[in-house]
Specification:
Layout lengths: L1 E6 L2 E3 L5 E9 L6 E7 L6 E7 L5 E3 L7 E5 L5 E6 L8 E8 L8 E2 L3 E5 L1
Parallel strand pairs: 2-11
Antiparallel strand pairs: 1-3, 3-8, 4-5, 4-9, 5-6, 7-8, 9-10, 9-11
């Protein structure tokens, strides 16, 4: 069983920065890909950034490239999202997720943390 708990959300002025954290516990062998997703009001949840656990390769959605950085603790017990130069359209609930197979569905999700940019 895997548990994900996000923290670090909040309100920030446009141009500011926030760092989201996701505490990961449970079966370490099941961690193939981990990522951050976000859902804005009236929109579908979408991928923001993912990391391939075995290689460290990262992938970003175009809208956050150059502004956001996803990273995984060496212990693989924490996932981070450093968000810089935040824009109004980054406002959303951010979710941490884990997939047991990269390219497959994300089976485990955190409860979400709200990010509001004004």
């Amino acid at each position: 069983h895997v548990q994900l708990v996000e923290s670090g959300g909040g309100s920030v002025a446009a141009g500011g920065s926030l760092r989201l954290s996701c505490a990961v516990s449970g079966d370490a062998d099941r961690r193939a890909c981990m990522g951050w997703f976000r859902e804005a009001p009236g929109e579908e949840r979408g991928e923001v950034a993912i990391v391939y656990v075995s290689t460290g390769e990262t992938v970003y959605v175009d809208s956050v490239k150059g502004r956001f950085i996803i990273s995984l603790a060496t212990s693989k017990t924490a996932l981070y999202l450093q968000m810089n130069n935040l824009r109004l359209d980054d406002t959303a609930t951010y979710y941490c997720a884990l997939a047991t197979r990269c390219g497959g569905p994300y089976q485990y999700w955190g409860q979400g943390t709200q990010v509001t940019v004004s």
